[in-house]
Structure formats: structure tokens, C-alpha cells
Amino acid sequence: MPGVVSLSDLEEALAWVSGPPEFGSSAFVSRSTGKIYLRSLDGGVDEDFPDDIEDATEYVPVPHKNDLDLGRELVLAFIESVAPDLHEQVRVIFRKRGAYSVFKGLLQRQGLLERWHDYERSATQRALERWALENGLTVAPEHDA
């Protein structure tokens, strides 16, 4: 029977994995229980971190948001759908460091920040649900998890 994992727990694990690279953060989901284990470069965060975490038959690593096309690709898709006149400006923004905060500032000035957050959250949830299904996991509705 596939492990059942909550969508909010998956979202938190994705944020953990997608954090600053210098932390070397990773997360794994048990295929049988759906429990998520977090780890960073300085060792396991969870006290009960399994010794066999690298066993792909039992645990699946949570991908980085870019592996789910939730980075620059998502930004450009959002801009194309809601403000195509900003497309070139956003492309230029994402050629430099600190692009995401500059992008959010632009959205704030344009009155689009809340729409972006809704769009990003919805896309993230759909991508995580697809990823879970592809990896033999079941995503529980939030009231059941």
C-alpha cells in the first residue's frame, strides 16, 4: 500500500530542499508510511532519521522546485498569462542575482503580487501531487492528513 503524505508537509519539504544551496538541505519521503525526513549538511534534522535513507526502494527524495519547473519557468508562464507586456522586463530581471525579490517588487508595483502568490501556490500543489503520484505516494486531503 502506498504511503500517504499530506500536501502541506510536501510543500514544507519542497521549501526546505529549495532553500539556500549552502545548507545542503534534502528531504525524503517513506514510500510505505509517507513520513518525511529532513536533512542538512550538518546531519539529520529528525532524531529518528533512518540509516537506510538512500534506499530508493523505501525512500524517495523530494525534488528541488526547479526540478518541477517551479522556478523561472513558472514566473515566465505567469507573466505571459497575466501581463505579457512585462515579459521582456521580467526576462531581464532573471538574468541577474536577486531576481526573485526584484520580480516581487515589480509585481507589488503592478498590483499583481497576490495573484502571483495564488498562481505559484496552485502550480506548486499540482506539481507536488503529480510528483507524488509518479513516485507511488498518495496525497491526503488536508483535513485527513
What would you note in describing this structure?
The chain is an alpha+beta fold. The protein has five helices and six strands, in the order βαββββααααβ. It has two domains: 4-64 and 132-140, no CATH class; 68-120, no CATH class. The strands form two sheets. It has a four-stranded antiparallel β-sheet, covered by helices on one side. A two-stranded parallel ribbon has the order 1-6.
Q: Taking all residues together, what is the mean pLDDT? A: 91
In the predicted model, the low-confidence regions spanning at least 5 consecutive residues are none
Radius of gyration: 17 Å
Roughly what percent helix?
40-55%
- Helix-strand pattern: EHEEEEHHHHE
Oligomer: single chain
The termini sit apart by 16 Å
Number of helices: 5
Large-scale geometry: elongated
Number of strands: 6
Which percent range describes the beta-strand content?
5-15%
Query: Strand order across the biggest sheet?
Result: 4-3-2-5
Main sheet, how many strands, which sense, barrel?
4 strands, antiparallel
Structural classification: alpha+beta
Task: Compute the number of structural domains.
Answer: 2
Question: What is the structure about, briefly put?
Answer:
The chain has 145 residues and is α+β, with helices and mostly antiparallel strands.
Q: Strands, helices and their partners?
A:
Blueprint: E1 4-6, H1 7-17, E2 26-30, E3 36-40, E4 43-44, E5 59-61, H2 72-82, H3 87-93, H4 99-110, H5 113-134, E6 138-140
Parallel strand pairs: 1-6
Antiparallel strand pairs: 2-3, 2-5, 3-4
